[in-house]
Design a protein that fits this description.
Layout lengths: L2 E8 L10 E12 L2 E9 L5 E9 L5 E5 L17 E10 L2 E11 L5 E11 L4 E4 L16 E9 L2 E9 L11 E8 L6 E8 L6 E12 L2 E10 L7 E7 L5 E3 L19 E8 L2 E7 L1 H4 L3 E6 L5
Antiparallel strand pairs: 1-20, 2-3, 3-4, 4-5, 6-7, 7-8, 8-9, 10-11, 11-12, 12-13, 14-15, 15-16, 16-17, 18-19, 19-20
Length: about 300
């Protein structure tokens, strides 16, 4: 694989009080014609996360033609699971409804944070996203007692398949965290049966975190892009890649991912949070740059899929 970086698309820069900074976790959603919508996470001046979008003309040098005037989702009330922020996860069509899975996060005292997975459903009459519950649809459990994170979901053979992040431990330092990917299934997209199986684990020396899996099925092969980081000479995120024949047993192939940090600029220190999608017979990747999306997100195109 070789990815060609095309453009630095967007970063929040005080457009609104709630869109003060960042542009994290970009996710593609097709609209009509050449105009496509990209959902992302921005922060207000107090660093509380909101979900927003931009509309981009893919036929006009990826020009931003519209910026959301109101947040798609905003933090919950004080004390709720998402009172510190809502973070973009993924979409999934469930019957005739469209689901948006997101992270709700809380700042904590004994550990840095607690992430759980919430759900919003598109109201077709108002074209707005409405939170399905005041509580997460996936919370901490016996299988995942510490914290869970970004889901990626596919629908196959009447079953919803989810790959998601799970924290295995906390410690005195952030590097004591062990964050891996696990697997769950559902028949309705709301109630999930967890397998407690680690499907992609830590492999590199001093590695301590995998984040935001993005799974597609391509020619009978499951392909996953994600972020990984280690406590060594490269402590910031890089994008990794894995393949599987069944979605359960994965082989990490990080050296073949075909994209890395730039020599200078907005993505010279870190690349992370990939979203891979096909549009007009081309495969694209949205991804974040330095400082977990503080410098926004860009787009790349796959040049030689079989290279």
């Amino acid at each position: 694989m070789t990815w060609k970086k095309l453009k630095h698309l967007f970063v929040a820069d005080k457009q609104y009080e709630w869109m003060y900074s960042h542009g994290s976790n970009p996710v593609f959603s097709n609209l009509e014609g050449s105009i496509n919508r990209i959902y992302f996470t921005c922060r207000d001046a107090l660093s509380r996360s909101h979900i927003a979008y931009i509309d981009v003309d893919f036929d006009d040098d990826f020009k931003v033609v519209n910026i959301a005037k109101e947040p798609v989702l905003k933090p919950g009330k004080l004390g709720m699971f998402d009172d510190s922020g809502v973070v973009m996860g993924c979409f999934q069509n469930v019957g005739k409804r469209k689901f948006l899975y997101y992270l709700g996060w809380n700042l904590k005292v004994t550990v840095p944070w607690l992430n759980t997975i919430g759900l919003a459903i598109l109201d077709p009459e108002t074209d707005t996203w409405v939170k399905a519950s005041n509580a997460p649809i996936m919370d901490r459990s016996h299988e995942d007692p510490f914290s869970i994170s970004y889901p990626s979901i596919l629908f196959e053979n009447n079953v919803y398949r989810m790959w998601y992040g799970s924290n295995l431990s906390w410690g005195e330092k952030q590097e004591d965290m062990k964050h891996v990917f696990k697997y769950a299934e559902s028949t309705d997209g709301i109630h999930w049966e967890r397998t407690n199986k680690i499907v992609v684990g830590l492999e590199h020396k001093n590695e301590y975190a995998l984040s935001k899996p993005w799974v597609i099925k391509d020619g009978g092969i499951y392909k996953m892009w994600y972020s990984f980081r280690a406590n060594n000479n490269i402590s910031t995120y890089r994008i990794g890649y894995a393949e599987s024949s069944d979605g359960i047993n994965w082989q990490r192939l990080d050296k073949t991912v075909g994209i890395d940090v730039s020599k200078s600029g907005w993505d010279s220190q870190m690349i992370s949070y990939p979203c891979v999608f096909d549009y007009n017979n081309k495969r694209y990747m949205l991804y974040n740059g330095n400082d977990y999306g503080k410098t926004g997100f860009g787009i790349a195109v796959l040049e030689n899929p079989n290279g």
